[in-house]
Specification:
Largest sheet: 2 strands, antiparallel
Helix content: over 70%
Number of helices: 4
Number of strands: 2
Strand content: 5-15%
Distance between the termini: 158 Å
Radius of gyration: 50 Å
Length: 140
């Protein structure tokens, strides 16, 4: 190896430190067309790999966000089903109010058209006394 090719090799595959990053660099002072093609191939594959990495990162982040959203939607659906068992809808409340009004009307009707317990006992006592007096008249 000559001295020039050694310098070219060191410059071609050297590593330069820039702000804690290790960046490979290529300096072609004089080289063959194969080396230039290798350099172009290296740059293209590096750029392609970086682009794929960036796309993969954002795709994974999007998929994770989608999974979290699906989980949240499922939890909200379960919470809605649990709440629908505990609380009534407006239509159900209106139906319950109508039923309660009907029951209230029925209670009022029963109060007006039935005999109270005290009245029943008083009438039965009078009836028993009449039966007893009638029985005593027929016996004696």
């Amino acid at each position: 190896m000559s001295e020039n090719s050694g310098l070219l090799f060191q410059n071609l595959y050297g590593i330069m430190k820039v702000k804690t990053f290790m960046i490979p660099f290529f300096i072609l002072q004089s080289g063959s067309e194969d080396m230039q093609q290798d350099l172009i191939f290296y740059i293209i594959t590096t750029v392609f790999s970086v682009i794929l990495g960036i796309i993969g990162f954002f795709l994974k982040r999007t998929m994770d966000r989608l999974d979290r959203n699906e989980t949240n939607v499922q939890e909200l659906k379960e919470a809605q089903y649990a709440l629908s068992d505990k609380y009534a809808t407006k239509a159900e409340v209106a139906e319950i109010k109508a039923a309660m009004q009907k029951l209230s009307d029925n209670v009022d009707y029963i109060k007006e058209h039935t005999t109270k317990n005290e009245d029943f006992i008083r009438v039965m006592t009078r009836l028993e006394s009449k039966i007893d007096s009638y029985y005593q008249k027929n016996q004696g």
